[in-house]
């Protein structure tokens, strides 16, 4: 089976989609490389869900070229569908079934599924295998969604806001699970509103604003973040002081020499991913 031309899992050129007079996706070019975690960021209504649903083959497009695992999702069939995994924002409802029953049932839909018990274990639900979904917490429901998304052993996994409502510890464990999937070779396209999640997980991020992709880069370089000066702050004569500098270490050494050791209230600040993200979407308005 053909995987991907030039190690590209997703290739999009000139993608356009309008709902009536409203253009939701407005000429997007995007490449997701095989084996990477790519995070799509953007404010509410930016077009993330529309774009990903087109890539998943769940929504038609008005214009543009799209290749996902080498095939056009608008025309691809069941064999292609078995190579992708999808975790939607909303959980499905399976009130009367247990976790194990659901996972075993859905395994029947795939030509070469992963072992259901191993998948339940991988998402940390082994001790809930006999529980009905109504007895699960929100975070546990989300883990079941992910279990179903990875059950077919997909080459490409779509994760739509996977950790909404998770407590911090569960989020960390979930991140480990996602990083483990990447380590196993799964390509992951993630949409999220959590900048720390993108920073922790993503190899590259793309920022979508009003249907246009305004920047694509690593979390460290997005929006020229790596080039931005650092701000050194300290307290002197009871008043806060600050200086923007490309050489914070030299500034601190000079300050330390001047104070004869410890510099009161010393901190070094660099723009966070959230800072550059907010600047990028502000400029796009
Ligand atoms: N089925 C639809 N019919 C009409 N307009 C739609 C439809 N789906 C989405 N839209 C509009 O298209 C735009 C993009 O929506 P989309 O759901 O793709 O954004 P999003 O980036 O996923 O937002 P969020 O972060 O809130 O999930 C929005 O203005 C939305 O109102």
Q: What's the topology here?
A:
Blueprint: E1 8-19, E2 22-33, E3 37-41, H1 48-55, E4 63-68, H2 78-81, E5 84-87, H3 99-107, H4 116-122, H5 138-150, E6 156-160, H6 168-183, E7 187-191, H7 195-201, E8 204-209, E9 212-217, E10 230-236, E11 239-245, H8 248-259, E12 267-269, H9 273-283
Parallel strand pairs: 3-7, 3-8, 5-6, 6-7
Antiparallel strand pairs: 1-2, 1-4, 8-9, 10-11, 10-12
The chain binds adenosine-5'-triphosphate.
Subcellular location: Cell membrane
InterPro entries: AAA+_ATPase, ABC_transporter-like_ATP-bd, ABC_transporter-like_CS, ABC_transporter_ATP-binding, P-loop_NTPase
Membrane topology: Peripheral membrane protein
Describe the structure.
- The protein has 285 residues and is an alpha/beta fold.
- The protein has nine helices and twelve strands.
- The chain has helices spanning 48-55, 78-81, 99-107, 116-122, 138-150, 168-183, 195-201, 248-259, 273-283; strands at residues 8-19, 22-33, 37-41, 63-68, 84-87, 156-160, 187-191, 204-209, 212-217, 230-236, 239-245, 267-269.
- It has a six-stranded mixed sheet with strand order 5-6-7-3-8-9, with helices on both faces. The chain has a three-stranded antiparallel sheet with strand order 2-1-4, covered by helices on one side. A three-stranded antiparallel sheet has the order 11-10-12, with helices on one face.
- The two termini are 43 Å apart.
- The structure holds adenosine-5'-triphosphate (ATP).
- Residues 19, 22, 24, 42, 44-50 line the site of adenosine-5'-triphosphate.
């Amino acid at each position: 089976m053909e995987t991907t031309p030039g190690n590209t899992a997703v290739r999009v050129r000139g993608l356009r989609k309008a709902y009536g007079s409203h253009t939701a996706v407005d000429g997007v070019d995007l490449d997701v490389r095989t084996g990477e975690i790519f995070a799509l960021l953007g404010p509410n209504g930016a077009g993330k869900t529309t774009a990903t649903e087109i890539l998943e083959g769940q929504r038609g497009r008005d214009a543009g070229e799209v290749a996902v695992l080498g095939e056009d999702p608008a025309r691809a069939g069941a064999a292609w569908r078995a190579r992708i995994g999808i975790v939607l924002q909303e959980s499905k409802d399976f009130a009367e079934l247990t976790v194990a029953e659901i996972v075993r049932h859905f395994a029947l839909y795939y030509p070469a599924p992963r072992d259901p018990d191993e998948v339940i274990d991988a998402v940390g639900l082994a001790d809930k295998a006999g529980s009905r979904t109504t007895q699960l917490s929100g975070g546990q429901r989300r883990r079941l969604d992910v279990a179903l998304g990875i059950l077919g052993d997909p080459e490409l996994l779509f994760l739509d806001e996977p950790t909404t409502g998770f407590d911090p510890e569960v989020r960390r464990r979930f991140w480990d699970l996602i990083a483990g999937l990447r380590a196993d070779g799964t390509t992951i396209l993630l949409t999220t509103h959590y900048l720390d999640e993108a920073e922790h997980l993503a190899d590259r991020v793309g920022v979508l604003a009003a249907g246009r992709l305004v920047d694509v880069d690593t979390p460290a370089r997005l929006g020229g973040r790596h080039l931005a000066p650092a701000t050194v702050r300290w307290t002197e004569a009871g008043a806060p002081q600050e200086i923007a500098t490309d050489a914070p270490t030299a500034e601190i050494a000079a300050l330390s020499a001047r104070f004869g050791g410890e510099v009161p209230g010393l901190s070094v600040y660099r723009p966070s991913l959230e800072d550059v993200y907010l600047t990028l979407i502000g400029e796009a308005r």
